[in-house]
Amino acid sequence: MSRSVLVTGGNRGIGLAIARELAAAGDAVAVTYRSGEPPEGLFGVKCDVTSWEDVDAAFGKIEAEQGPVEVVVANAGVTKDTLLALMSEDSFSSVVDTNLTGAFRVSKRAVKGMMRMRRGRIVLISSVVGLLGSAGQTNYAASKAGLVGLARSMARELGSRNITANVVAPGFVETDMTAVLDEQRQAAITSMIPLGRMAAPEEIAKVVRFLAGDDAAYITGAVIPVDGGLGMGH
After folding, report:
1. What Gene3D superfamilies does this protein map onto (predicted)?
2. Domains of the chain
């Protein structure tokens, strides 16, 4: 049966690849986006995950369109990179508010329906940076590391209701964000990756599809790295 799925930040990059992958699996997929246009073939809802009112309203629209959300993928995220000594408090708090607290808001709203249905899948999109750390990204790394504690706490709270919560931690992925890096920087990055290349967004999406599916029914509280070996051991 087709499930109602929500992917936040699903209008480009990794989020869009995840949304397309889940739609190809037969799910009814809605995506949230902050700007631009919704992707063709998917139900798009404008939503800023830093606003509880926006999140609640988005869920209302999605539930009316395709039913209670059974799978939520918290992917929406931002970066504001700079060295710690130069980082403003706003640059730190705004990144945490979007990446970590935004995932909390979306998960909190989703579990109400999931608990009634006594089933659900929550997948949080973290980053290898949240496990390894990264100079110039204390805000981003802290927000992505926080997703691990969030997911594992939800796994313990919600497991008795047949709701799983897991984390996918991508490494460097070929997206608009990495495309702006010059060739020297890209070469430096790939030299650190045992597999010697960046990931395609679809490679992240397939892992999310697995975690959202029946074959992963006994996996919860897990952190799945999809990083070419960059963060192994963390």
Report:
1. NAD(P)-binding Rossmann-like Domain (3.40.50.720)
2. 4-226 (3.40.50.720)
